[in-house]
Amino acid sequence: MATSETLQTNRFSDTFGYPTGRAATKVLGHMTQYVQEFIKQTPFVILSSSDAEGNCDASPKGGKPGFVKILDESHLLFPDVAGNRLFQSYQNLDTNPHVGLLFLIPGVNDVVRVNGTVTIVDKDELDRQEVEVALYEIDERSHHLQGIIIEVDEAYTHCPRALKFSDLWDVDKITANKSTRPIPDR
Predict the structure, then answer these.
(1) In the chain, at which end, N or C, are there fewer CB atoms within 10 A of the end residue's CB?
(2) Which domains are seen in the chain, by residue range?
(3) Whether the Cβ atoms of residue 63 and residue 40 lie closer than 8 Å to each other
(4) Range from 2-11, 30-39, 113-122, 153-162 carrying the lowest mean pLDDT
C-alpha cells in the first residue's frame, strides 16, 4: 500500500504529475480521530475484495451508525449479518485477505477510505467483543454469522468531487426518483 510516507514514482505520476498539498500527505497507516468519528456515524459501507486471481467484488453493507466497531486506531471489527448466502466477499477474503472499504454518510459529501488486511472471525469472537446487531429493519435473518477484523494499511478522507459531480445527495433528485423511478422495478 502507498501511504503518504511511501508514495513512489509510477507511470501515472510520471505522466500526470505527483500529488501536492493535502493529497500528498493524507494517506496514513492508521485512522485519525476524524476518520474514526466518520466511521462511527456511517450507516453504509461498500466492501471491495478480490480472489487470488484478481477477480473483484464490491458488496454494499449497511446498519445503524456504529455497526462497524473501532477497536483502536489500527483495527476495525466488521460484523456479517445473515444475507443471501452467496458469501462472495468471504470466499475472496479466504484466498486474498486484502480489502477496500468506502464509508458514506447520506447527505455528507466527505468519503472515508480504508484499505487493510483481514482476519475472518467467528460469531463467538463477535460476542466476546460485545458486537450487537445494529439494523434499522429487523427480519428473521437479522443475526450475525461471522465477521472480519481489519488491520488498517491505509486510511484517509477522499475528495468529495465524485459526490458533487453526481449530485448524489440532491434532495430534489432523490424525491423525483422515489416518485418516478428512473428504471423499471425488477
Answers:
(1) C
(2) 25-179 (2.30.110.10)
(3) no
(4) 2-11
